[in-house]
UniProtKB/TrEMBL annotation:
<dbReference type="GO" id="GO:0022857">
    <property type="term" value="F:transmembrane transporter activity"/>
</dbReference>
<feature type="transmembrane region" description="Helical">
    <location>
        <begin position="267"/>
        <end position="286"/>
    </location>
</feature>
<keyword id="KW-0813">Transport</keyword>
<feature type="transmembrane region" description="Helical">
    <location>
        <begin position="136"/>
        <end position="156"/>
    </location>
</feature>
<feature type="transmembrane region" description="Helical">
    <location>
        <begin position="16"/>
        <end position="34"/>
    </location>
</feature>
<feature type="transmembrane region" description="Helical">
    <location>
        <begin position="292"/>
        <end position="313"/>
    </location>
</feature>
<feature type="transmembrane region" description="Helical">
    <location>
        <begin position="168"/>
        <end position="186"/>
    </location>
</feature>
<feature type="region of interest" description="Disordered">
    <location>
        <begin position="402"/>
        <end position="443"/>
    </location>
</feature>
<feature type="compositionally biased region" description="Basic and acidic residues">
    <location>
        <begin position="424"/>
        <end position="443"/>
    </location>
</feature>
<keyword id="KW-1133">Transmembrane helix</keyword>
<feature type="transmembrane region" description="Helical">
    <location>
        <begin position="207"/>
        <end position="229"/>
    </location>
</feature>
<dbReference type="InterPro" id="IPR020846">
    <property type="entry name" value="MFS_dom"/>
</dbReference>
<feature type="transmembrane region" description="Helical">
    <location>
        <begin position="376"/>
        <end position="394"/>
    </location>
</feature>
<feature type="transmembrane region" description="Helical">
    <location>
        <begin position="235"/>
        <end position="255"/>
    </location>
</feature>
<feature type="transmembrane region" description="Helical">
    <location>
        <begin position="334"/>
        <end position="356"/>
    </location>
</feature>
<keyword id="KW-0472">Membrane</keyword>
<keyword id="KW-0046">Antibiotic resistance</keyword>
Length: 443
């Protein structure tokens, strides 16, 4: 995704998005027709690679088409609605289609991608490619991806081989080395995947860490709840999908209004509120047993988590892309999507490791449920970390104040209002000129 986002900046967002979408459609068709396991895996790999280019390119198309402010906030809220609707419909449709044939779940994205491709050819504005760039940071992409894959593999296998064994410790050491090499490569690359100076912004760091904890906690929660509903309660895939539907429906219904809410309250407050709702929703789910009443036990958690997603998802997109120049929007979009996926992979690996470490109590349904509870505690703790991280953005800042030490003009109207516009040695709205020394004192 880092390479995909940067490529969108360099080659043109429209071109990258449409080409990757076409490849995605072909790979979806291939995945639904093959009769070989390796070919199925290969088609999924190509789909993932294509999505790594479409996701950051699509987000950066929005952020560069609409100017920063209320218009972009509304556009990103609609983007959130589409994401939530697609996610919810995907859950329900996959559950329904699986009852007929698993191949249908592979084939369905193909016509949807083709429809999006046709619409994109007509609707997406053309974007210029950056002809001044000096190549692509392929080594950075390979090293960054390898470090994340090794990290996830190490966490997944650690419960079986032991957390303190030489193999696990050496793997963690190798991850640290790879990440160090990645930073060195990015600092020296003429066209880095990540301009490290972007990470000097506190709001940017909070957005990236928030994305990791937000999606990481939710993926872990969804994984455990799916196992709980299908393995322990005996629910079908469709029944399970419908149980999750209220959360996605709540996001889809409310997200179009999120732009105005962000304009009024700002992203820091919405992120804190959303993470707080998420923590409460996860904690409430700890009450489940082997014979739950859906409306009383499961539904409240789903509604709280849905409300949290409605607040957090668009706020993260807005906060990560605000204050970033257009020529780096693809880079930031790729970074945000990377944070989402890495958070999901790493924290899911941690949750499964915790469940595996607590699954020695037997194979009875109650013992299995008891092994799930520590995983749910970890999910809640991850969301709590996200709450703490985003809460650091609530520190109030006094607005900047300016003090004019000396001011004079050829037009008396300057002193009454025009001078406050901050122009120096230039034309004023009323035609007068300001000749002054001005010092701005900012808090």
């Amino acid at each position: 995704m880092l390479l995909g986002g940067r490529t969108a900046d360099l080659l043109g967002r429209r071109q990258v998005f449409l080409v990757a979408l076409g490849v995605f459609a072909l790979a979806s068709l291939l995945g639904g027709l093959v009769d070989s396991g390796p070919l199925l895996i290969a088609s999924r790999f190509i789909k993932g690679l294509s999505a790594a280019f479409t996701a950051p390119a699509g987000l950066s198309i929005i952020t560069t088409t609409f100017p920063e402010g209320p218009l972009r906030n509304r556009a990103l809220s609609i983007y959130t609605t589409c994401a939530a609707t697609g996610f919810s419909m995907g859950l329900v449709l996959s559950g329904l289609l699986t009852e007929a044939s698993w191949r249908l779940t592979m084939l369905l994205p193909a016509p949807i991608a083709v429809a999006a491709l046709v619409a994109g050819l007509r609707l997406i504005p053309r974007s210029e490619r950056d002809r001044s760039h000096r190549g692509y940071d392929v080594p950075g992409a390979i090293i960054g991806t390898a470090s994340m894959l090794l990290l996830v593999l190490t966490v997944v296998e650690a419960p079986e081989v032991g957390w303190t064994t030489a193999r696990t410790l050496l793997s963690f050491l190798a991850v640290a080395v790879l990440l160090t090499v990645f930073v060195v490569v990015e600092r020296r690359s003429p066209s880095p995947l990540i301009r490290l100076g972007v990470l000097r912004s506190g709001s940017q760091i909070r957005a990236q860490l928030g994305a990791m904890t937000f999606f990481g906690s939710y993926v872990g929660f969804q994984f455990l709840v799916t196992l709980y509903m299908q393995s322990l309660l005996g629910w079908s895939a469709l029944h399970t999908a419908l149980a999750f539907l209220p959360a996605g429906a709540l996001v889809a219904l409310s997200a179009t209004r999120m732009g105005a809410i962000v304009d009024r309250f700002g992203t820091p407050r919405l992120l804190v509120t959303g993470f707080a709702l998420m923590v409460v929703g996860y904690a409430l789910f700890l009450r489940v047993d082997l014979d739950p009443v859906y409306a009383a036990v499961i539904l409240p958690s789903m509604l709280l988590i849905g409300a949290a997603c409605a607040l957090v998802f668009p706020s993260l997109n807005i906060q990560a892309t605000n204050g970033v120049d257009d020529h780096e929007q693809g880079m930031v979009s790729g970074l945000l999507n990377t944070s989402v996926q890495v958070g999901g992979a790493v924290f899911l690996a941690i949750v499964t490791a915790v469940v595996a470490a607590n699954s020695s109590g037997g194979s009875s349904p109650q013992a299995v449920l008891d092994s799930y509870r520590p995983g749910l505690v970890v999910v809640t703790a991850v969301a709590l970390v996200g709450l703490v991280v985003t809460a650091t953005g609530l520190r109030t800042r006094r607005p900047p104040r300016s003090t004019v030490l000396v001011a004079s003009s050829e037009d008396p109207a300057v002193e009454n209002g025009a001078a406050s516009n901050g122009r120096s040695e230039g034309e004023l709205p009323d035609g007068g000129r300001l000749e002054k020394e001005r010092v701005a004192v900012r808090d």
